[in-house]
Design a protein that fits this description.
The longest helix is centred in the last third of the chain and has 35 residues. The chain is of the alpha+beta class. It contains 24 helices and 26 strands. The relative contact order is 0.10.
Length: about 750
Amino acid sequence: MAHRHHDHPAPAPADSTCCGGHSHHDHGHDAPAAAGASAPPEAAAGARRSRLYIAGMDCPTEEALLRQALTPLPGVAALHFDLLGRVLSVDHHLDDEAPLLRAVAATGMQARALDEAKPAPTPGPAVSRRQRWLMGLAGVAAVAAEALAFAGWGDTHPAVVLLVLATLGLGGLPTLRKGVIALRHLQLNIHLLMSLAVIGAIILGQWPEAAMVVWLFGLAEMLEALSLERARKAIQALAALAPESALMLQGDGQWQPREAALIPLGARLRVRPGERVALDGRVLSGESSVDEAAISGESLPVAKGAGDLLLAGSVNQAGLLEMEVTAPKGQTLLDRMAEAVQQAQGQRAPTQRFVDRFARIYTPIVVLGAVALAVLPPLLMAGQDWSDWFYRALVLLVIACPCALVISTPVTIVSGLTAAARRGLLIKGGLYLEQGRHLKTIALDKTGTLTEGRPVLTDALALDTALERGQVLHIAASLAALSTHPASAAIVAAHDAKDLPLLTVDSFESLAGRGLAGSIDDQTWLLGSARLMRERGLPDGGAERERLEAEGKTVNVLAREGQPVALLAVADPPRADSAAVIRQLHELGLRCVMLSGDNPGAAAAVGRAVGLDEVHGGLLPDDKLAAIAALPGPVAMVGDGINDAPALARADIGIAMGAGGTAIAIEAADVALMQDDLRRLPEFIALSRRSAAVLWQNIVLALGLKAVVLLMTLFGLGSLWLAVFADAGASALVVLNGLRLLRWRGLATTKPTAR
């Protein structure tokens, strides 16, 4: 079973059909698909990258035109499209951008070069107030023309013709202009097909129908643009959560506002009640509750105190906090989430690749069918009216464009990625959003994933009845305070009498891998493993120690003057929600397996506590790779450490703990749980299934409407305006249906579909 999920095929080349080659942030006509990365590939050696802002570029039709115009230019190496941001990045070997700007202008769109060091401008309104008024007046004229014709004035009455011409002038010119451009570029897109339908209807004397066709199409395009603007604003809203300035401590001891982009790493900031946190950092002083709902999806405020993490975009609710900046502007968790969601559009999901391939075959076949429908029946059957069959062919031409089908997938995927980011779930591409529903096995690391990753003292058993628990901890903490071992830190943290000074330790000695030794009040003390006790010829704790170790705990023996007086057991406890998450994954039909480098006893104890199906302990990184290959797939691997990176890369989907996880693990993974919140894991599966359901709803809706109108046309019952509704109307419907995912609020409101 192969699990090399990063060996994805390169995006299929763009076709010349309507909406062909669609991808919201494609990786270029000759660039390979990104291997699990969220950013576009670097420019080829020797090539320079120019970024062009194209105000009219927000539809697959425009992308196909631009590809056809720019790809043949000498010196152009690759194209990278960001349709939501309306930015085209071109890798080229040209002296300047002038040839690129001329080629874009030839498509009827205007481009301007962007400074590489500055962000792209925020796209303006999708539909201006003027456009809305013009489309409204065009609609009045079109309906009036239809009403007069229906009232008996006739389709060619001068008043009807005048109203139709008004409709074309007010609301149809953009469509006709784009149709001429498409014809000049020999591209069979929706604007050319719609222009032919309008002209054909006029030739046949169907003036009112020509008006309704061009107005309905323009109205549907306007609704589609407004719907896409919602998706664009949802992504922009992520980055806009963090304020642009913060109160920073100056060298003279004064607190002054400073632009967030200019605040350096390590700076000291003050966050007042009610303010949003500008940058990621750690609390230095103060206590408060912080609302992190916008970043993690956690509905309840989180208590924060000294040492706790603060995230940009969260809201300080009560007390005054002072913090140290740990991530500058552009590198905060919020920035990474917004950037990854924006750039993840470039990785086309399997359904989108299928739809694009289907569109390349579907459109030419239907167009050829329309030509045959116009010519063959009158030639082969006596008494047939040429105009009647020509009209039916026009209807079929309108049906030929797969716009609704092609645009349904990227809008759904972007909506799903944005909804996930709002829940603290960073998915690096539509591929992984869609593949999540196919998972059969979830493999999880133990330390830092299923457990807190910080050992705590679980047991302090006095073997000498003369000593109380507090005395045992006081002595053990005095020794442990001189060590940096995690188990020592757990013992010190558990010391009950926080205000009781630790004892002075003389002749301290750290015995590597075994324990500690020292003298307290002229008595010799040992704190260490059973091995250390046996080396010194002392009792090792016997049956009580063995019982604690059988529970997966690390046991240290405290001995005084050669006599064991206490046992101190340390363990890394499961996260509070680990058992509930595993239960939810089981309910979703997944098998849950632990792959841990920890000792088998500790791994088994955690596995029993959280309810895993299978536990493997004592694994080296290579062992984890072999274990993943042996599991029934598709398999997801969840981990946080450097040693998990190979397994994350090998699994079908790698999922990293995003807050506590190492940078290497996050880079190797395809999905990140940004708050180390395991509850997002079952939500990822549920969202994947929900997204797939919406995708197939859109495909059925887009093709179903066309099939109905196609059959009606063949039987002489179809009409041009009905065909426009089936095409342009379906486009608006599937966009609106896809945008429903933006309202997704997690498992509490989602019923995952059966796989």
